[in-house]
Every structure is written in structure tokens, then in C-alpha cells.
Amino acid sequence: MTQKNTLRAADHLVDLLQAQGTKAVFGVPGESYLPVLDAFYGRDPDIRFVTCRQEGGAAMAAEAYGKLTGRPGICFATRGPGATNASAGVHVAFQDSTPMILFLGQVARDMVDREAFQEIDYRRMFGQMAKWVAQIDDASRLQEYVSRAFRTAMSGRPGPVVLALPEDMLYDDIAQPVAPAWAEAPRFMPVAQTLEAVKGRIADARAPLIMAGGGGWTSTGIAALERFAETQGLPVAVSLRCQGLMNNSHPNYVGHYGVGTPPYLATLMEQTDLLIAIGPRLGEMTTNGYALLSAPVPTQNLIHVFPEPEELGRVFEPEIAVTSDTQSFCEAVAAWKPIDPDLFASRTETLRAEFERFTVPDSVPDDPLAPYFAHLADVLPDTAIVCNGAGNYAGWLHRFYRYRSPGSQLAPTSGSMGYGLPAAIGAAICAPDREIVAIAGDGCFMMTCQEMATAVHHGLDLTVIVIDNGRYGTIRVHQERAYPGRVSGTDLANPDFCAFARSFGAQATAVQDLASFTAAVAKARATPGVSLIHVIADPDFLAPGKTLSNMG
Questions:
Q1: Per the domain annotation, does 309 fall within a domain?
Q2: pLDDT means per 10 residues in the chain (552 residues)?
Q3: 168, 215: one domain
Q4: Looking at the structure, do residues 353 and 369 belong to the same domain, yes or no?
Q5: Is 237 helix (H, G, I), strand (E, B) or coil?
Q6: Which of 5, 345, 515, 550 has the most beta carbons within 10 angstroms of its beta carbon?
Q7: Which residues, listed in sequence order, are joined to residue 100 by a DSSP beta bridge?
Q8: Is residue 426 situated within a structural domain?
Q9: What is the pLDDT of residues 159-198, one digit of tens each?
Q10: Within 13 A of 375's CA, how many CA atoms are on the CB side?
């Protein structure tokens, strides 16, 4: 039998994904990439197409997969409406610095620029929310484009890439290609002279602080960060929703800069004379509207470590700018001998004690939700992955839960609602041996609740906890501050969440007190499959210790 010396473009595309180690892709089927769907046929378990119910959920699940693996999460969506839906997940990947590739169906090449059915110019649409946007018109160049997409998504500051696939191109036959090379993220070691300057600034400091954050971290880099902090006696805080970058039970970990930064951390920043920012962009939420640091020249001496030079000095001028990936920098400084740890250690102990006091439920007496999240921290294993979207409920989670292992927090620094459930799906596909919990407000959950069908359909094990206060809580807080008593557009009418979950085949329990919550959590953890816990929350509570009645 004569061996075929040509290959269909769609088959070549899936081969390329497999060659880069892709085990799962997320998407909603569409006629614009029908040959690709056909190319996935019979490939289980080597590569799995995870059918989702809306492209926004699919893209968010792929983004979460990319966060956990460090390699691009892959999403497929059809042209036009599919692309616009998927853009929600692309924006998350961009602001969260997560490697991701979105493949989009496109009109046939002979129909371009006619406003054909569902046609969109993706370069214009995604130009400001992706690292690279391209269209593959020549099937013989698929390997070139896909290889570049993987490398671009992982290099420097990681982020999303968008590739458009004209539907007729996918049917083309090409010559049998050469096997592709494995794409890796390049590492950038800081130069010795710069490292000596950093060491000198630490030696001269009296109140230094490390702030870790951003994307592109590895387990190796996190371990090196902890060694660096331990050896030098330095306190470590993290930027917005990057709590999983360091074990929250570590004695050098002192807290989280983000929405509602606690007073002790605000004071810490005022008193810090040397800020070593490793990985964060120092964006709006982390810096409390660019107020914690003065722009453009901070009062603190700033050492800023970031993998792309264009970001260094973008808002805050650093005294020392270090172009380096976080792993290479942390490994280099972790090898140093102690500089003056005794000078810093007592201050770090004091800050750690402040963190401990702030994060126990007793710090907000009579708060009904604080014990719920403290209980989760007590019973979930260190390796559990906790996912959430955006909403005021996250204030309780971020304050009272403790993240204790790499990848244990999946939360959008972009502030995207609806992220928690799709992220849990991505996590359950990626790490089926870890416990997965998604936490969402009622408004947040309803934005991607259709993905309950995805979770049940694919036989995933995960628990969804819905905190139901009958409103868009975060917006209500802003509303009460700016226009007290003038409620407009923030009240919600909700379904019976338990009945909703059961309609998909999930188990569900409604709870109204701590005892029933602990029982429901125990049942969910012991029961395979998808579980939902409906927490009926006191609508008067807006944030930990803050209520409508005491806002004035």
C-alpha cells in the first residue's frame, strides 16, 4: 500500500497541538472549523475536546488551564458571535498574564472584506487584548504560525494569542511536514552587576518589603522566592489575587495587596524604604488607584523585576530595573548568603502577627460569613484549588482562606465576573487528582452558570459554593457610598439554585448557618461528581465587618 504523502490542514493543526503537549482543548463547536472537529475524532485520550456551552466559559476554562500548566490553554470558537463571546476570556488572559491561544473560525478566503456571514476583522477586534493576532491563509505555514503562537504566548510577559482559521484553508492538503520542535518559554537571567546593586540596596535598607505577583511563575520560582525571604528575613506580600504564589502559612508571608487593602499593609507601604517588586505590574488595584506608591517617582526605593523591559518604568520609575523572569531572578538571589537577616527578622515577625490577627474570624465579630471561609481553610487539603470570579463575596474568601500550594488560587486579576465555575472546569480537567472548589456570588454564578452542564457532561469532580445576597453586591457598595439610599439596578431575582443544579444532574444543598454549611461541605467532599452549596447570605453585609446599616 502506497503511503499518503499529503496531510489535511485540520489534521496537521491537531497534530501540532499534540506535539506541544496539549492534552485538552476547550470550545463550542462551529461550522467554521468543522474539519478541526473531525480531526479530533478518535484522538481521546491523547487530546480531549472539552465541549462547553458558551465561548466565554470555554475561554475562561482554557485560561485557567494555562495558569495551572504554564503552557498555553487552548480554546476553539466559531466566527463572529463565537469570537465576541470568547473575548471575555481573552481579556482575562491578557490582564492576568496567562499563556493562551484562541483559534477562531473565519470566513473563506474568497469572501474576505465583503462582510460575509459573521465576518469580523480579528486583528482590529483583538488588537489591544492579545499579544499577537494573525490569520493563517496558507495551510503550508500552519506549523510556522502555531510554533510562533506557543512561543509568543509563553515568552516575556505571558499572554493570549489569537489565530484565525479561514474555513476553506482547513480542507487544504499539504506535504507531510517535519516534526515540530518543542516550544519553551525563554528565561532571562539578570546580569551580575545588577544583582550586586540589588544586594547593596538590601544591605542599606532598614524596612524592606518584597511584593510578588504577576504571571509566569513556576513551582521552582516560588520555592526560590521562599528561600530568598527565609535567608534574608524579609517579609513577603503579594499583589492582587496572587495569594497562591506563596504558602500563606509561611512565617515570612504577611498579606495581600488588592481591593480593600488592610490598614496594616497600607501602613507597611508607607514605612517601607525599599520595595522589591518581583513580577507584578504594580497596577491600579494592587496600588489602590496608584495611591500606595507615588507616581512617577515613589518615595520608596523601588527595585522592579519584570520579564519585559517595556513595563519597567511604565508608571513608577524604579531605582533599579531588572529585566528577568521571576524564576531566574529568585534562583539567583536565593543563592546569596545572609545579608543582615537579624535586622529584618523582628519586623517580619511583627508583620506576620498582624496578618494572623487580621485573618481570623474573631477580627470581625458577629460576621456571619467569616467562619465559613475559615472552615474551608481548615478542612480542604493544601493542594486544593479554589476558584472565584469577582464580587464582594471574594473579600471574605481572600481574607479568611489560606492558599498553601502553587496553583491553589485561580482568580481573575482582571476582575471578571463569571470566572469561578469555568476556571474550576479547567482545573478539574488539568488536575483531576486535586480537590476543586468554585466560589461565586449569585450575580457572578449566573454569568456562566450554563457550564454546570459542561461539568456534569464530562464527569468532573468539583464543588460550587454560591453566596447569595440577592444583589450585585460590589456595585451596591459603590452605590451606597456615592448615592446613599438611591438603589438602582443592583437588586436581583434569583432562581432556586439547588433545583437548577439538580436539573443538570448535580447534587445540591441549601444552607443558612455554619453547622449546615460544614455538613454540606463534608457531603460534597465525600460525593463524586458535581455538587452545589447554596449559601443564603444576610443581604445587609457588604464586606467583612461592613454592613449597609453601618456604612454612614
A1: yes
A2: 79 97 98 96 95 98 98 97 96 97 90 78 92 97 97 97 97 92 92 96 96 96 97 97 96 93 94 97 92 94 96 96 97 95 91 97 92 97 97 94 96 94 98 98 96 98 95 82 86 94 98 97 98 93 83 60
A3: no
A4: no
A5: strand
A6: 345
A7: 73, 160
A8: yes
A9: 999 999 999 999 999 998 898 999 998 899 999 999 999 9
A10: 15
Is residue 185 in some structural domain? Answer: no
87: helix, coil or strand? helix
288 and 196 in a single domain? The answer is: yes
The domain boundary, picked from 146, 175, 204, lies at: 175
Q: What's the confidence (pLDDT) of residue 203?
A: 95
Q: Strand pairing partners for 162?
A: 102, 133
Q: Do 15 and 139 belong together in one domain? A: yes
What the block records as the C-alpha cell of 161 is: 494569542
Residue span of the structural domain in which 525 resides: 361-550
Asked if 85 and 11 sit in the same domain, the reply is yes
Q: What CA–CA distance (Å, rounded) separates 295 from 70?
A: 32
Return the C-alpha cell found at 311: 513595563
- DSSP per residue over 462-506, as a string? EEEEEEE-SB-HHHHHHHHHHSTT---S-B-----HHHHHHHHT-
Distance in angstroms (rounded) separating the CA atoms of residues 252 and 233: 7
Domain count, the chain: 3
Query: Is residue 316 a part of any domain in this protein?
Result: yes
| Residue-by-residue DSSP string for 139-189 | GGGHHHHHHHHHHHHHSSS--EEEEEEETTGGG-EEEPPPPPPPP-----P
Give the model confidence (pLDDT) of 422-455 as tens digits.
999 999 999 999 999 999 999 999 999 999 999 9
Average pLDDT, the chain: 94
Q: Rounded distance, CA 307 to CA 328, Å?
A: 10
**Alpha-carbon distance 266 to 263, whole Å?**
5
Residues 11 and 101 in one domain: yes
Helical spans, DSSP H, in 359-463: 370-379, 393-400, 420-430, 442-447, 451-457
Using CA atoms, how far apart are residues 344 and 69, in angstroms rounded to an integer? 35
The CATH number assigned to the domain holding 344 equals 3.40.50.1220
